[in-house]
Amino acid sequence: MNTLIPVIERQTEEEIKVFQEEKLRELVRYLNEKSIFYQKLFKEHHICVDDIRTLADLQKIPTTDKNDLQRENDAFRCVPKAAIVDYATTSGTMGTPVTFGLTDKDLDRLAYNEAISLACAGIKQGDVVQLMTTIDRRFMAGLAYFLGIRKLGASIIRVGAGIPELQWDSIQLYNPTYLIAVPSFVLKMIEYAEKNSIDYKKSSVKGIVCIGESLRNQDFTPTLLAQKITEKWKGVQLYSTYASTEMSTTFTECEYQHGGHHHPELIITEVLDDEGNPVPIGHSGELTITTLGVEGMPLLRFRTGDIVIMYTESCSCGRHTSRVSPVLGRKQQMIKYKGTTLYPPALMDLLTNFEAIENYIIEINTNDILTDEILIKIGTRIPTEAFKEQIVSHFRAKLRVVPKIEFCDIELLEQQLYPLGSRKPMKFVDRRKLIS
What we know:
Layout lengths: L12 H22 L1 H9 L21 H6 L14 E5 L7 E5 L1 H17 L7 E4 L8 H13 L2 E4 L5 H11 L3 E4 L1 H13 L11 E4 L13 H9 L4 E8 L4 E4 L7 E2 L5 E6 L12 E7 L10 E7 L1 E2 L11 E2 L4 E2 L4 E3 L2 E3 L1 H8 L5 E10 L5 E9 L4 H15 L4 E5 L1 H8 L10 E3 L6
Parallel strand pairs: 3-4, 3-5, 5-6, 6-7, 18-21, 19-20
Antiparallel strand pairs: 1-2, 7-8, 9-14, 10-11, 11-12, 12-15, 13-14, 16-17, 18-19
């Protein structure tokens, strides 16, 4: 596969709209025939699928969310179990994971999605990509990266997560041109290299596709985390990417780094307010998606819970599709603290400013007067009052509010970060729902 921009992404807004409306009509007919969940939803809300013909007609259909997937997981499946060739899971809202079954066709779609997304970041045939995320434990992202890299005609080094020494051994042995990694771990790799006399600035790596943590502020300037990486690792390019298991689609930024590019052949996007109405262009709202081309478990008007802004002007890279902003936060994670609205990413970015912070967990509770309280547990080797005052002053200057700070044992906090073998660190814990 070449890395040219797909034809649909160079077409006009009207041409893209016509294409998506045809795919939407195919989808609702498919769901009406194959999906127990959507058959019931259409019947309960008196929806005739023949009336859903345009993107505007989506407003006639109720939205769904992760609670629906959790309660009626199997009812979303549109194919016999024998047609499922891979099972992936994502975290649920009720303590048990939500399963997504993928068919052969879905895996082909996943490969195409990741290939054109990684191509946004400049990866092409002949590149060598070091994959620094897990591909096992039912994790869809690792599988998607593997399939996409393979489809691009690039080479893959499957190192997996963690172990800086092994990562550097692989870099020195195989000379990858790109890494796929969590950005905070890249900082740990830099620290390891500096301590072990590894000249990382002269390595083969020219770009890093970053997952799991934000690289951009809402105005697309680099976050403190991104700044710290590029200040040390001169010349390396960082690319932000956004995806979820439910979407089976990825939004990756190009060299102009002004949002993750939308792939209209794979997904329809809406940005909605709390009442389910579309927000004006340039305003933030909840990203709501309709998957196209998914055979096993397609989703129609699924609310992702992520607060974003969509930008519709054409990009300098030649794509005419919309772009998604950095995620402002999760809808259910919005914090009202002393008259200020906050999201966890803002707190996390400020904590990145302190090299002495080894790890941390942000906990949200409800106090006696039923307002939000923030406790940040910090693991550090200098748990002094002077260091705590530095953190407090930084929060006061940047956010005008100061959460409660508590120093904790680094090793014990690390155990709490990965409860029950979690694939991702649980840096944010919301205990408000436990308060009756």
